[in-house]
TrEMBL record:
Region called Disordered, residue ranges: 1-63
Pfam family, one: EF-hand_7
Alphabetized PROSITE patterns for the sequence: EF_HAND_1, EF_HAND_2
Biased composition annotated in UniProt, kind: Acidic residues: 16-36
Keyword Acetylation listed: no
Record's compositionally biased regions (Basic residues): 45-55
The protein's name: EF-hand domain-containing protein
Keywords: Calcium
GO MF, any single term: calcium ion binding
InterPro entries tied to this protein: EF-hand-dom_pair, EF_Hand_1_Ca_BS, EF_hand_dom
Domain EF-hand: 92-127
Species of provenance: Seminavis robusta
Length: 141
């Protein structure tokens, strides 16, 4: 007895069913790939992703980082009142340090980040140049 066409194709998915399944599969992979606004580099297996090289800090920024690290005595990555007291040997009143931090602490978290430090040092350099003039490498103004 020969099987009817309906019986022969009962377990075989139709073209429409296959397309729907592919669409669902695509949605499943999209869910795993959350778009959080970060660019994705989809390198092929065995190839390294194209990453931009880190920007090399300028000599001035390296100098500022060294200064910052000398003041950050507890190596927290921030300068706080305790760091300033230790760095100066405690010869100045605490109110001096409290006021200094208030002036530099732009995000009001009670400590000075490296970014805040760079801003203040840049302003200090600008004020120094305005008051005394910019020196050249030969000692002349």
């Amino acid at each position: 007895m020969a099987a009817t066409t309906a019986e022969a194709t009962a377990g075989v998915p139709s073209d429409q069913q296959e397309e729907e399944q592919q669409h669902e599969d695509q949605e499943d992979t999209d869910d795993d790939d959350v778009d959080d606004g970060e660019p994705r580099d989809r390198a092929k297996p065995g190839k390294k992703p194209n990453k931009k090289p880190a920007k090399k800090p300028s000599p001035q920024e390296l100098k500022l980082k060294k200064e910052f690290m000398l003041i950050d005595v507890n190596n927290s990555g921030f300068i706080d009142k305790a760091d300033l007291v230790k760095a100066t040997g405690g010869y100045l009143p605490e109110s001096f340090f409290t006021n200094a931090i208030k002036l530099m602490d732009t995000n009001r978290d009670g400590k000075i980040s490296f970014e805040e430090y760079k801003i203040v040092r840049g302003l200090a350099s600008s004020l120094k140049e305005a008051a005394f003039g910019k020196k050249t490498g030969d000692g002349k103004k």
